[in-house]
Amino acid sequence: MYIIAFTGNKLSFNRKHKEILHKKITAFCLLALLFTGCQKPATKEPENIAVNEETAQPAITTPEKQEPVQTKEKKLSEIYDWENARIMDCRYSLNFGEGQVLQNQNYVFYPEDGCKIARIDKADGSKKIIYRSSPIKKESISIHYCLSDVRLFIEYNGNVYSCGFDGKNLHKIISRKKLKKQVTAIEPGAWYYGNTDTLKFHQGSLYLSIGDFIWKLDLKTKKTTKISKRFFRACFCGSTLYYTRYGDYSLYKINIRTGKNSPITKKKCDALTETDGKLYYVHNLNIYMYCKGEKDKKIFSFEKKFKNFKLADTIDSDSGKIAVTYITNDGRKSVAIYDTRTSAFSKIENIRNITYLRYFAGDMLFYSTTYHYEEEYISYLSYPQPAKDKTFRITKENITQPGSTEYTPQESQEEKLSDKYDWDSAKITNDYDKGNVPDLGNGPVLQNGNYIFYPEDGCRIIRINKKDKTVKLICRFDPAKNKHSTTGIHFCLSDSRLFISYAGSIYSCGFEGEDFHKIISRKKLKKLTGIADVYAMRFHKGSLYLPSCTWSICRLDLKTKKATETSEYYSIFAGCLCGNALYYTEHIYDTLYKVDIHNIHTGRHTLIADAEHYAVTESDGKLYYLEFGFWEKTAIYMYSKGKKDKKIWESGLSGTEAYCTPGKIAIQYCNSSIGQKYGFYYDNVLIYDIKTSTTTKIENIPGLYSIAGLSGDMLFYIKNEDDKYLSYIAY
């Protein structure tokens, strides 16, 4: 044995072996030179080897513990605003173990409007439509697609295409005509839907579901082969395709190379999925791992996780997850999820309006809210925590007014504002609850016969055409010029123009954005009235009415540019304009007054009612007011000058806040007697429509802080006081 040690550039060794080493001194000298003296080491030219260069690090005598740098990967639900994803709810029972929201290392893909493929860049969240086809007005026609490592494969109306991840190099693989000819030659009745239900790329071939059978499309020969019996569920695992047979749901497998079908078990398999090369299936609410040649292993039981368990409609599986839809004791549908990869179990209870699960993707669950497929979009939530905005409940009721047939329910002909635009993309800033400043019933979204207008990001006005839903920017302001103001942009409409308040100045323009000009500057308005900021505005009979943070209202005559302010004695908290009068509540809603608008500063302020809390609105030239209070009954009256006011509606609910827009009154209330007594959980809203005598209750609104406006069939509200943007509910 040789004992050799290197110290600096010197070689030390055992004398016992000096003679032997002396004979090989040349070899050891070369070895010493190799370790200590070579400045240019000999190199061999490598062939086809990629070299990653790293910066040389100084030698470390004592090793230091290096903590690995971990980059937190974004959840799928955080990559994109999925409220903007218009994913059609199509027939999707027959899948191959994954849904239609797919992703790879760089991108997320999803089908939009039934005829497009959208791509989301994971790095920056940007969206691009990479495939688009003309929509086909037929219930069963919807787009399907899948991914390989480098391409997309797309099926639409029976035609199969392929393209790159950027949408380039799009070409048709097989036409509807050729595919139908091949399929019907083998199985004549398979083409009764006229397109595929889904498709999957696996090991060089495409697999399609057509007419409840699985078909293999060879991408080289373009030949289509039927490889399964009628099936219900299927998933791939290596070179084997597993599926449940339609009817008895027994489990089969197919060798995709030979096409041989073999039965595995006659037990009813409700769902199946693949994880890390292993197959999992569900039988009698138990999850088993398939073990070839051995007894299958039970790994989880749903039944043991529940008391009084009641199965609802389905057991579903997708992407390594298995889910059971069940019904809670209060009758609401909920979902339990078992993840075969992590062995994690989750429950999502009381999912609003769920009818069917559709598929999973990342931390998201996609589901249907209707039993019909036509013109409906799929809904989603992220888990394990359910989406907060999916928990509220809406109920409507027609009211026969006490003692009168004048207010019998009528049919509402109002267009649904919520259908005219994708309101999840509307960024309406939270400028609507600044010390309960009255907005005179003029909420954030306004409309006339042709257009809808809304404020975007506190510095722009956006117009939506009701007929074709086109969007146009009407005007834009520089946010930097609003640094001295505490509010954003506000506007109102006349018959032909917009009037806009920004940074304290008042502007006007036409509905196309033409003839834009300043009416009065911030400096001049403040000099005339003392108002520094305008928090709302309304046009009425040739003048603008401008509520301010000083709880007063300024009247600006558009002809004379003369501005007057209401008396400082009357602190206005809510108000409306009706005829030649301004009606308003004073001193924390305690009393209700009216004043002639032509003498708004010097005219007589007449007391109408004196109770606890009031809100006022106008409908068809008549004034209506709401009387409400803590632990008090709530009632709506029609004002009758010189006569006793007529009560048109009454309720025992306890209201804490109210909001009015022309013809509608919204009341924020608590539906619990204990909550009413102690003043908490005011997370419900009742809306009374004066024209139709209809009440709508929206219950359990998550995080409701304050009502911000009513417009059409939409309620705008503030979730949290510090939220930047408003939230909304369509009812």
Write a structural description.
The chain has about 725 residues and is mainly β. The chain contains six helices and 57 strands.
Could you describe the largest sheet, including whether it forms a barrel?
5 strands, antiparallel
**Shape by Cα distribution:** elongated
Low-confidence stretches: 1-71, 385-391, 401-412, 673-680
Biggest sheet strand line-up: 30-54-53-52-51
Number of beta-strand segments: 57
Instruction: Give the proportion of residues in helices.
Output: under 10%
Q: How many individual helices?
A: 6
Structural class: mainly beta
State which percent range the strand residues make up: 35-45%
How many angstroms does the end-to-end distance come to?
A: 89 Å
Mean pLDDT: 78
Radius of gyration: 35 Å
Task: Tag the structure with descriptive keywords.
single chain, 731 residues, mainly beta, five-stranded antiparallel β-sheet, four-stranded antiparallel β-sheet, 6% helix, disordered N terminus
Question: Would you spell out the secondary-structure blueprint of this structure?
Answer:
Elements: E1 4-7, E2 10-13, H1 18-23, H2 25-36, H3 76-79, E3 102-103, E4 107-112, E5 116-121, E6 127-132, E7 144-147, E8 151-156, E9 159-164, E10 171-174, H4 176-186, E11 198-202, E12 205-210, E13 213-218, E14 224-226, E15 231-237, E16 240-245, E17 251-255, E18 261-265, E19 271-275, E20 278-283, E21 286-289, E22 297-301, E23 311-318, E24 321-327, E25 333-339, E26 344-348, E27 356-361, E28 364-368, E29 379-382, E30 393-398, E31 446-447, E32 451-456, E33 460-465, E34 471-476, E35 490-493, E36 497-502, E37 505-510, E38 517-520, H5 522-529, E39 538-540, E40 543-547, E41 553-557, E42 563-565, E43 572-578, E44 581-586, E45 591-596, E46 605-610, E47 613-619, E48 622-628, E49 634-638, E50 646-651, E51 654-661, E52 664-670, H6 673-678, E53 684-689, E54 694-699, E55 706-711, E56 714-718, E57 727-730
Antiparallel strand pairs: 1-2, 3-4, 4-5, 5-6, 7-8, 8-9, 9-10, 11-12, 12-13, 13-14, 15-16, 16-17, 17-18, 19-20, 20-21, 21-22, 23-24, 24-25, 25-26, 27-28, 28-29, 30-54, 31-32, 32-33, 33-34, 35-36, 36-37, 37-38, 39-40, 40-41, 41-42, 43-44, 44-45, 45-46, 47-48, 48-49, 49-50, 51-52, 52-53, 53-54, ...
